[in-house]
Amino acid sequence: MEFALSDEQQMIAETARAFFAENATSARTRAAMAASGPDAGIDRALWQAFCTELGLSGIGIAEEAGGAGLGFVELALVAEAAGAQVAALPMLGSLALAAQAIAAGGTAAQRADVLPGLLSGEIIAGYVHDAGLKAEDNRLTGRDAFVAHGAAAGLFVVTSNQGAWLVRADAPGLTVIPQTTMDQTRPMARVTLDGVVGEPLADAAAAMARAQACGWITLAAEALGGAQAALDRTVAYARERVQFGRPIGSFQAYKHRLADLVIEIEQARSAVWWAACAVDEGAEDAALALHAAKSFAADTYFLCAGNMIQLHGGIGFTWEHDAHLFFKRARAIQTALGQGSWHREQVATLILGDAA
Amino acid sequence: MKLGFSPAEEQFRAECADWLNGQMAGEFKDIKGITQLTAMPERRKEWEQQLAAHRWSCIGWPEEWGGRNATLAQQVIFAEEYARAGVPGRINHIGIELAGPTILTFGTDAQKRRFLPDIAAGKTIFCQGFSEPGAGSDLASVRTKGRVEGDEWVVNGQKIWTSLAHISDWIFVVTRTEEGSQGPKGLSFLMMPIDQPGIEIRPIRQINGDAEFNETFFTDARCPVDSLIGAPGEGWKIAMGLLAFERGVSTLGQQMGFRNELDEIIAAAKANGAARDPLIRQRLAKAEIGLRLMRYGALRMLSNSDHSKIDGAALTYKIQWASWRRNLGELAMDVLGQAGEVAAGDHYEWDTLPNLFLFSRSDTIYGGTNQIQRNLIAERGLGLPREPRG
């Protein structure tokens, strides 16, 4: 039994944790949130440092495809560390979805053309999905109102149920309108395509399957990191805040709520590790594991972030305190890439077969 | 990080499964699938002896004491295959999993020679005397007294919740041996034979109608002086060491039992149409996810090579499975509908799922209530200030 981090994985986790803790500070995240224009919600300097200095942007992408090798376990460790700081970075759209799709489904030429720019952070990509997209001779017409970091994207991977295409942001017929987004650390944009010429990916099914799996793992791992951080910060507050002459963390009503968070977080960690391993090892139950991890970790994060506000009292409801960054990110993760109830229905179908 | 077991371990799994399935199809066919802890005790004692005869009784013990020196992974695999084969729970699980390891860790050579071979062979069935009417969650406030008289210990007092005492041969008892001592100090750990005039056992009927728990009364009950494990006053240390054994390899076998229960609920939901109800489907999915996460939580716990350090996965394990199973019992009743409210026969005896519904109310109480578990998680796990103690 080796269901534990190896020395190398431990090192990756610590490196990532130290990097984000030092650099993805609350002040920098808030500066990114307050920015206007296409870079709203992105700490560009941090993204550059992450992609080039830290060199972890290519994790989960094979070396032949220009990535750093390794697998989803390592990728999850990095996403967890970023999530713990609610870092304002285009990790989800640009790396987990777009780059993974291209690496898995693009031709050698497409990968060589596009991936270096994405992995170096010079270009940000968005991931557009429209089940009802019309595609005639690779002329695409459709829309997606919720494209993460879409306003900053220089390139889009556009997917439908029939195929996947690369589309440049300056392609004629493409319109991108930034949205005002509750989670300002991951702003969304409305992307409209009106007869835009797309360059088809060679293997659309592989591209979408890989992007979907990676997107779910990334969100689940981010949620795990965020949940743990919300708990850790609340525990620190429980030790120092004194009422009735005692630290509030000595009251059982308070302690038991925190204990309940630990119970959920431990399960969320098992879920993320299981799902990441299951994909890396090609396990039979990988699909079940992914649905479990995405839904469970997202709900855990929301529970922890909600309690972070409650257990901080009034200060937790202020803009000045970071609790709302966690709370909004948690809610956004719950909704993104399939709500919990949808994922659980997929699990139900897997275990019940066609009983219904 | 890896999900599965090695090829050698999988080969060991096949060996375990072959033998267990063979037994359940052959000589011990009649006990296959029994879930009630108190059913067919005599046959199950014979089963203990059969296990011992083939060296499957206590595989984690050293070879010289009847074990196989099995690795942690092998013990997990055996526990999984044991449950998967539908073999009923070990009637001597307290002897094998608690008394034996305690004697191995804290006993003298003479005590090892006296007890271990008979525990391993299924000839000595043990039960556990910790809780008292006044010492439940506050386990250290034990009042049962022990004193030395000549070459014997003499014990007076009362224990409660002694599972299977009525079919056991020996009981280990935590007694207060230092006059005037309080809390964890002044306690000692004694092994006592049950068949003697000074020990009386009365069954306690549970909410499901069964009676696996007992009250055990000690009135000048006696055991030889060399029945003391460790030194006088070390009782608490030994009891705590023993409770750590409880959180171990058997958890994965226990999960196979949970798997069977969930599968039965899924089958019932498919049969009666409840599986079409979207809310039931959500809850079945949650139950499935919870069970899977329990498995990977246990694997994390068992993969932690530093066993001196209790990590988060280990601290939360009890409350997680207990709460999961209590929810499962409620889900079972919602799936069954009114069919779950009536017994199949004339007696107050319940089929598996209604029994699960009733019995699982005890899961969140015994072995440390959910409330106590939350205290432990907050205090040991998060380092928050301790509860005030009187």
Automatic annotation (TrEMBL), chain A:
It holds the Pfam family Acyl-CoA_dh_N. Residues 6-122 form the Acyl-CoA dehydrogenase/oxidase N-terminal domain. InterPro entries: Acyl-CoA_Oxase/DH_mid-dom_sf, AcylCo_DH-like_C, AcylCo_DH/oxidase_C, AcylCoA_DH/ox_N, AcylCoA_DH/ox_N_sf, AcylCoA_DH/oxidase_NM_dom_sf. SUPFAM superfamilies: Acyl-CoA dehydrogenase C-terminal domain-like, Acyl-CoA dehydrogenase NM domain-like. Gene3D superfamilies: Acyl-CoA dehydrogenase/oxidase, N-terminal domain (1.10.540.10), Butyryl-CoA Dehydrogenase, subunit A, domain 2 (2.40.110.10), Butyryl-CoA Dehydrogenase, subunit A, domain 3 (1.20.140.10). Its cofactor is FAD. GO terms for molecular function: acyl-CoA dehydrogenase activity; flavin adenine dinucleotide binding. Keywords: FAD, Flavoprotein, Oxidoreductase. Residues 217-349 form the Acyl-CoA dehydrogenase/oxidase C-terminal domain. Belongs to the acyl-CoA dehydrogenase family. This is Acyl-CoA/acyl-ACP dehydrogenase.
TrEMBL record, chain B:
Keywords: FAD, Flavoprotein, Oxidoreductase. Residues 233-381 form the Acyl-CoA dehydrogenase/oxidase C-terminal domain. Its cofactor is FAD. One of its GO terms (molecular function) is oxidoreductase activity, acting on the CH-CH group of donors. Pfam families: Acyl-CoA_dh_1, Acyl-CoA_dh_M, Acyl-CoA_dh_N. Residues 127-219 form the Acyl-CoA oxidase/dehydrogenase middle domain. It comes from the Bacteria. SUPFAM superfamilies: Acyl-CoA dehydrogenase C-terminal domain-like (SSF47203), Acyl-CoA dehydrogenase NM domain-like (SSF56645). Residues 7-123 form the Acyl-CoA dehydrogenase/oxidase N-terminal domain. GO terms for cellular component: plasma membrane. InterPro entries: Acyl-CoA_Oxase/DH_mid-dom, Acyl-CoA_Oxase/DH_mid-dom_sf, AcylCo_DH-like_C, AcylCo_DH/oxidase_C, AcylCoA_DH/ox_N, AcylCoA_DH/ox_N_sf, AcylCoA_DH/oxidase_NM_dom_sf, Mycobact_Acyl-CoA_DH. Belongs to the acyl-CoA dehydrogenase family. This is Acyl-CoA dehydrogenase family protein. It comes from Novosphingobium aerophilum.
